[in-house]
Amino acid sequence: MEFDEEMPLSDGVIAEYAGRLRALSEKEGLSPFDRGAFAAILEYGVRQAGRRNKVTARFVDIADLAREAHYAAAAAGESVVRAAHVRTALSSKMERHNLVETRIREMIEEGTLLVDLDGTRIGQVNGLSVLEIGGYSFGKPVRITATAALGKTGVINIERESNLSGRFHDKGVHIISGYLRSRFAQDKPLSLAASICFEQSYSGVDGDSASSTEVYALVSALAELPLRQDIAVTGSMNQQGDVQAIGGVNEKIEGFFGVCKIKGLSGTQGVMIPAANVEDLMLREDILEAVAAGKFHIWPVAKIEEGIEVLTGKSAGHRNGDGTFADGTVFAQVNERLSKMAHVMKEFE
To answer: Do 130 and 236 contact (CB within 8 A), yes or no?
Structure first.
């Protein structure tokens, strides 16, 4: 028999949460929780579920947080648990588990792990991964690069060639190949040898949540157009170029924000996420404040073309009635490069 770990967020479920919290307080002699503290605990439950319209059914985790918030209030000499005490408890919990995250941030700050947070580069974009250690999840920026040259091998997944790629990541790379064929190989063969790589990644890659990020790097390499490095990207894609929802969106945004904060917020930095993930956003207060102040940005995108325009500042381009792309667009540059490759390959053979 299976038990769902999530429940729909409704008035009845909120009342049940309040009842359980009151019962826990009475049973274990915890201090009473005010409305702010209860709201903060409920917010934690929603965040654990991963969607704004759901809440976790794992009340054992909620009870642990409530107990720690009670101790935080007692340590502050207060007889009522408030939202600030819940936040203190969450911070303490994070500090007990975030050693690896702290080390990664230090390596980025020192320049050991290479992540650019300003300027532009051709064939390079910041991706976002999620690591989970001891039940604690956090986001880690990762540099994704692509190169393109004349050949017949198609898109090479360097992770797969190195036995570091899982099945779902392999599928994502095949989808990228399908997308390129549907967009640019209707009137010519793809005479392409391209490679995609997660730089400084040695523990394996799985999942297709970076497939949109990889296609941006590849399009940049083909069009020889630089991409913004102050933006990190997450999102899977299908062969039609739709950007699809991914997991861990809050952790990914918070991971990149943390790195930007260490290096210094420039006011232009931000994260590009699938539009379908907007309903999943449950971000920390400091990120909400930075977004409201215009110091950090979140761009929701639904199509690959939208993401290309954010990263390049140029129009992506749509196919005209005669099968060509409008002059000056990104896709026109990609199409022209691929046409030249096909022509050279034919002559070479």
So the answer is: no
User: How many Cβ atoms are within 10 Å of 316's Cβ, its own excluded?
Assistant: 23
DSSP lists the bridge partners of residue 195 as 147, 156
pLDDT, tens digit, for every residue of 306-331?
A: 999 999 999 998 877 777 888 889 99
Q: Name the CA dihedral angle for 186, 187, 188, 194, rounded to a multiple of 10 degrees.
A: -40
Instruction: Give Cα separations from 234 to 142, 231, 244, 289 (angstroms).
Output: 11, 10, 10, 22
What is the chain's Cα-based Rg?
23
Name the phi and psi angles at 115, rounded to 5.
-140, 120
At residue 156, what is the residue type? Answer: I
Catalytic residues: 209, 252
Residue-wise pLDDT tens digits, 258-301: 999 988 899 999 999 999 999 889 888 889 999 999 999 999 99
What is the model's pTM?
0.82
pLDDT interval class at 345 (50, 70, 90):
confident
CA 59 – CA 106 distance, rounded (Å): 35
Residues 299 and 275 sit within 8 Å (Cβ to Cβ): no
Q: Distances in Å between the alpha carbon of 252 and those of 127, 129, 280?
A: 9, 7, 12
Number of continuous H segments (helices) and E segments (strands) in the chain? 12, 13
Question: What are the residues facing 250 on neighbouring strands?
Answer: none
Given a contact cutoff of 8 angstroms between Cβ atoms, the answer to whether 252 and 234 are in contact is yes
pLDDT tens readout for residues 159-199: 665 656 667 777 778 888 888 888 887 888 778 888 888 88
Q: Which amino acid is at 212?
A: S
Q: Looking only at Cα atoms, what is the longest distance across the chain? A: 83
Half-sphere exposure of 244 (CA within 13 A, CB side): 13
| pLDDT for position 199 | 83
Give CA–CA dist 262/317, Å, rounded.
37
